[in-house]
Every structure is written in structure tokens, then in C-alpha cells.
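Fill in residues.
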């Protein structure tokens, strides 16, 4: 059934979804429904029609969910602006912030996470250890090594003052 109908269902979803990823998700969901309800799937050509019916409902649900998430995002942004002023101030786009963002992207996920927890979320190394599920000594060691690797990456670009990393997020524009 999958081999016979996936292409037609994927095309159906592609013509209605905003992205190819959304279309792939919808198509996958259709076949998941078919798998779970295999006893209800008719045989032969009727299976194709049944799958298109499921695809139609799945696409409707997907689009409804997208609209709901968009409305919630708009409401959240409105609440942030109302309570905290312009949300754009949280996103510092100056040259040093861009350099830090680039260097952070070159670090391993573990290094990036421990630095971000301590520098941007204002957690102590002990608190970061708890979040990461490791002991405090391991967190301090990881943080020290991560800072050293980050400094080396930044120094390759050109020397930069690292005090911003110890105090606030380059995304927030705080120093």
C-alpha cells in the first residue's frame, strides 16, 4: 500500500503545505494512521480513496495547528513588547556578537551548552551541572575547557574581549 500510494499522497501534501518538510510530515502521518487502523483500510482502489480522505483531514489538522501556533506566537510577542518593551533589544546584531555566535557554532554541543547555561542563563557551574545531569566538578572542568576552546576560536578570528561571555548574552545586547 505504501509503495503504491506514497507518491500520490506526497504530491497531494506538497500542493497544500508551505514546505516540503510539512508535506513529508503529513504524508508520514497518513501512513501512521493507516498502520494503526489497518483493519479499517479498504482493499484495492478503495484504499487509495481512503488514504486521500485521511490525507485531507491530516492536512486540515496541520494547517489549523500552524494557524494556532502563529496566533500564539503573535500573542507572546505582543505580551513581551507590552511588558518588556521592544523585543528586538534582546537580539544584539553587532559585529562582536556575530563573531561570538560564529565561534559558538564551531564548538561541540556539550561545550556550547555549558557556556550558554553559565554565561547567558546566569547559572553557577553547580546549577549547570544539575541541568546537564553531571556532577559539579565535571561541569567546572567542562566549562573551563569550553571557555579555552571558545577563546582559541575567537583569537583565530582576531582578539576579542571575552568579558561579554561571562556576563551576558551577545543576543541580548547586555554587557
Amino acid at each position: 500500500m505504501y509503495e503504491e500510494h506514497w507518491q500520490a499522497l506526497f504530491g497531494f501534501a506538497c500542493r497544500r503545505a508551505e514546505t516540503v518538510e510539512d508535506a513529508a510530515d503529513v504524508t508520514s502521518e497518513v501512513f501512521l494512521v493507516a498502520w494503526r487502523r489497518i483493519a479499517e483500510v479498504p482493499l484495492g482502489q478503495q484504499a487509495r480513496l481512503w488514504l486521500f480522505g485521511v490525507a485531507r483531514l491530516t492536512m486540515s489538522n496541520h494547517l489549523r495547528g500552524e494557524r494556532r501556533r502563529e496566533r500564539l506566537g503573535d500573542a507572546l510577542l505582543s505580551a513581551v513588547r507590552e511588558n518588556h518593551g521592544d523585543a528586538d533589544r534582546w537580539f544584539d546584531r553587532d559585529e562582536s556578537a556575530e563573531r561570538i555566535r560564529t565561534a559558538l557554532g564551531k564548538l561541540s554541543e556539550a561545550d556550547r551548552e555549558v557556556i550558554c547555561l553559565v554565561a547567558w542563563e546566569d547559572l553557577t557551574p553547580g546549577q549547570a551541572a544539575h541541568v546537564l545531569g553531571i556532577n559539579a566538578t565535571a561541569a567546572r572542568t567542562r566549562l573551563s575547557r569550553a571557555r579555552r576552546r571558545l577563546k582559541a576560536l575567537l583569537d583565530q578570528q582576531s582578539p576579542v574581549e571575552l568579558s561579554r561571555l561571562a556576563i551576558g548574552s551577545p543576543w541580548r545586547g547586555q554587557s
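Confidence is low (pLDDT under 50) at residues 160-175.
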